[in-house]
From TrEMBL:
Domain HTH cro/C1-type, first and last residues per copy: 11-65
SMART domains: HTH_XRE
PROSITE patterns named among the record's database cross-references: HTH_CROC1
Biological classification of the source: Bacteria, Bacillati, Actinomycetota, Actinomycetes, Micrococcales
Renumbered residue ranges of the record's region Disordered: 109-131
Superkingdom to which the source organism belongs: Bacteria
Gene Ontology MF term list: DNA binding
Originating organism: Agromyces sp. G08B096
Name of the protein described by the UniProt record: Helix-turn-helix transcriptional regulator
Length: 131
């Protein structure tokens, strides 16, 4: 797992948990929608300035972000070294229909938000033997 993949996933989850669209977050953080979308999909690496701006809007500390991203990478590495793979569990509450409708134009495949108060990616992982 690459750093940019874990970071992008965390940023997307945090944005969705707060009910923000890409447009709303990009306007508030002064980052283009296209660039923010690339960050969330793990296709671009954020500069420290952009990451700080996005985290400020999402009310996340950089320490919290790096901790959770580190946990996700550590879990993926441990699973990979043991011949197992990570499986994301969908145990979180669903996004309300009105929020989902607002997100539909973003063509996102994420349809759930983390449990309130939880931003950890590693907590959504279980283990199964690789086939």
């Amino acid at each position: 797992m690459l750093l940019r993949d874990a970071l992008g996933d965390l940023l997307r989850r945090a944005r969705l948990a707060r009910g923000l669209t890409l447009r709303q977050l990009s306007d508030a953080a002064a980052v283009s929608v296209a660039y923010l979308s690339e960050l969330e999909r793990g296709r671009k690496e954020a500069s420290s300035e952009i990451l700080a701006a996005v985290c400020a809007v999402l009310d996340l500390s950089l320490a919290e972000v790096f901790h959770d991203v580190g946990d996700a990478i550590e879990t993926a590495e441990l699973l990979e070294s043991s011949g197992r793979e990570a499986v994301v569990l969908d145990l979180r509450p669903r996004i309300p229909a009105d929020v989902r409708a607002d997100l539909a134009h973003e063509r996102t495949d994420a349809v759930s938000a983390p449990m309130p108060g939880s931003t950890s990616l590693a907590s959504d992982v279980s283990v199964r033997s690789a086939a």
